[in-house]
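Reminder to self: tokens first, then the designed residues, so the page reads top to bottom the way the pipeline ran.
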């Protein structure tokens, strides 16, 4: 891999400020063509324990620093990420598959969390409370929660780390990160830049490894860890929540979704199609807020489908480093097999295959952008998160009914509403049981606003003032006079 700054390519774990080999290594491959990118440390549960020890030792000194001091170090980290964004994007595309322009976007989005939380930590205030008793004085102070452990997924190998580590470090916590096995290089590159920025040894540790369950047990059960934060599937999230129960850890969970995308007959069709494309095909559909169920009003159904089909047919698919590519491969063959199975199930249950429907010959992890119509709510393609480039369209006629259908899922992450009628838009946005609702746009995620889900889509919020609050304990102080 050719990089302007070859120092960013690390194959060992970053623990206690040093690079450490593990007993074994694991292969990291380009999902577009299977090429070996390198062999990276295959860390163990014991390595995770060493990292927790380092984070525990580093905590008192880091916590003691003023917010301004922590902010200055974090801003250096931010600056270095921006300066190295070209290399970081290249590493990300090679190990994850998304087009280079998307990877570049993720790096800057990821960096924005570091800048923003560095600023925000200087404004975390306690309160004085009007007393209930003249002989007492009441106040609150806010203190960092302690050692934070993070498990992150492969779909956003950079930003899911910074979204957790930045507020934690800004608050005065120390962190141990286990990235997904498929995308360790982006995580280790962040570790290198944190090192260069001068984050003290042990404040940030990265443990890569294929034994997710073993490392995960340490990160969710070690009594020295105060908070666990996770992005991944609902099934794994539930398991990890149960593991956290043994030591009553604070938890943040960003889990799966089943996003409805509702197009009313008063929507602007070009806006709706553009938004749908953005939510559906970014990262080949492997996004937790990706549209999963498209509900289109009967009166505009054919027009919407025709425009969507034209846009989908124009997508350029290939290796993410090639110029002009809009969509790369999926992460691994298992993901391809799964979406293929869901498409076949839908067609067997009566859906119409408009375009796509099969893997592509580009490489074993490519799946064609696929448009299905005549989908119904009971099909697996509608009840399960497809996490792939599949647009599954259903029809509706009645507002109340479509809200009911949109809400009839155990998930509650993101929802989309397309309507030019401000009263309707307000009504529907309020009625949707989701943590985030985007109206007349498909792109909404930002560091300044709270990201997170209702129901089985998660606990807590990342980003915004809410994201900062997740890493503090509020201490109530009562003084007798
Ligand atoms: P995805 O569908 O995004 O792969 P997963 O929930 O399987 O979602 O993976 C998200 C993260 O959780 C990855 O870092 C993965 O290694 C980790 N993971 C998967 N299974 C476990 C487990 N049993 N214990 C701890 N971590 C796990």
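Designed residues (481 positions):
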């Amino acid at each position: 891999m050719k990089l302007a700054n070859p120092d960013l390519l690390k194959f060992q774990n970053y623990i206690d400020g040093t690079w450490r080999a593990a007993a074994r290594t694991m292969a990291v491959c380009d999902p577009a063509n299977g090429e070996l990118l390198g062999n990276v440390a295959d860390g163990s549960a014991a390595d995770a324990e060493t990292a927790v020890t380092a984070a525990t030792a580093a905590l008192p000194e880091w916590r003691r620093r003023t917010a301004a001091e922590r902010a200055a170090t974090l801003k250096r980290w931010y600056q270095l990420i921006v300066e190295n964004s070209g290399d970081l994007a290249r590493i990300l595309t090679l190990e994850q598959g998304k087009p280079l322009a998307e990877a570049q976007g993720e790096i800057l989005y990821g960096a924005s969390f570091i800048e923003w939380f560095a600023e925000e930590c200087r404004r975390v205030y306690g309160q004085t409370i009007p007393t209930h008793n003249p002989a007492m004085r009441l106040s609150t102070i806010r203190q960092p929660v302690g050692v934070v452990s993070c498990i992150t997924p492969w779909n956003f190998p950079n930003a899911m780390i910074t979204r957790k580590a930045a507020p934690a470090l800004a608050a005065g916590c120390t962190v141990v990160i286990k990235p997904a096995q498929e995308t360790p290089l982006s995580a280790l590159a962040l570790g290198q830049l944190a090192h260069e920025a001068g984050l003290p040894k042990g404040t940030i540790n990265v443990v890569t490894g294929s034994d997710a369950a073993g490392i995960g047990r340490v990160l969710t059960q070690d009594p020295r860890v105060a908070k666990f934060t996770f992005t991944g599937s609902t099934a794994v999230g539930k398991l990890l929540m149960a593991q956290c129960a043994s030591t009553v850890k604070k938890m943040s969970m960003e889990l799966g979704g089943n996003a409805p995308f509702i197009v009313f007959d008063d929507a602007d069709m070009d806006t709706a199609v553009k938004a749908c494309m953005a939510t559906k095909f970014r990262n080949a559909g492997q996004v937790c807020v990706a549209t999963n169920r498209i509900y289109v009003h009967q009166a505009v159904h054919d027009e919407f489908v025709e425009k969507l089909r034209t846009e989908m047919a124009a997508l350029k698919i290939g290796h993410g480093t090639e110029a002009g590519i809009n969509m790369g491969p999926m992460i691994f063959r298992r993901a391809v097999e799964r979406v293929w199975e869901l498409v076949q199930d839908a067609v067997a249950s009566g859906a119409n295959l408009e375009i796509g429907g099969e893997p592509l010959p580009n490489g074993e992890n490519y799946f064609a952008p696929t448009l299905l119509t005549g989908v119904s709510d009971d099909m697996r393609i509608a009840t399960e998160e497809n996490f792939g480039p599949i647009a599954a369209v259903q029809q509706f006629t009645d507002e109340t009914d479509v809200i009911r259908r949109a809400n009839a899922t155990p998930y509650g992450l993101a929802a989309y509403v397309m309507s030019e009628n401000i009263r309707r838009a307000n009504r529907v946005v309020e009625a949707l049981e989701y943590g985030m609702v985007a109206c007349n746009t498909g792109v909404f995620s930002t560091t300044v606003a709270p990201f997170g889900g209702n129901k089985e889509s998660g606990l807590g919020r990342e980003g915004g003032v809410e994201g900062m609050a997740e890493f503090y304990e509020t201490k109530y102080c009562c003084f007798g006079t």
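The chain has a mean pLDDT of 98.
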